[in-house]
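Give me the 3D structure for DUF317 domain-containing protein.
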Amino acid sequence: MTGVSEMVEQAFIAPRSLAGMGDPGWIAQPLHRVAGWSHGHEPLTPRVLLTSPDQLTHLRLAPDDPDDPDWWTIRQARTADHPAWAATFQSRTPVEIIAAFADALTDPSGPPTTAIDPFTALQDAGWEPPRHFGGLADPNGITRVERVGNPGSDLWHIETAVIRDPTIWRAVFTGTTPLHLIAAVTQALSDPAPIRRDPGRIPGWARDRMTVDTRHVPATDVAFALERRISALAERHRRVADVVTAPPGPARGRTR
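Predicted structure for DUF317 domain-containing protein (256 residues):
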């Protein structure tokens, strides 16, 4: 026994928008195992249908057509406090970007009490208005985030594209989508940290626009990455539950 763990090769891809889809379980497993979303799909089919415990929110993954703009769809029914909303992501959207949306949606502490502007994280990361378009574009000119339309019928639109592949992936959010959920996506997009992928699954598009750093990492880091993610999210739920159920502290008496 040498005590040295087995090492495997991994590719670290930047910018994050070009990393390719990844493992759908990165999204579906935490929703089911941590947030308690029930599944209604057949186990032997590629389609995934998940429903939140309150039955108001549904996630649909339908990989029948890789170019279907509704490959990933998340819909929330209207409530007394908020109108219905929907978010869609195309197949090449990195699962880490969609997971940021799902994690914010299922945050047990609830939405923030102050308004969040989805453009703020992009501006802080140096994104600027692109030529001939609205919104903000990343410094490489690969990904653009824009809010289009009039209030009541507006959309948030994210597109990753290069000249030789006009649209690599697109995400669309109805204007009624809570802004903190869209902000979670823009925060994930503007994060400079690369996304890790199997070297055999490096996307074939826009190779001249991405940086790929291949290095060896412990095999356990790869094998247990999803379990560590699930454990971290479960701990987030436990911390919030402990705060909610904690008994009030003892009353302070008068001191001399």
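Residues 252-256 have pLDDT under 50 and may be disordered. Let me know if you want a second pass.
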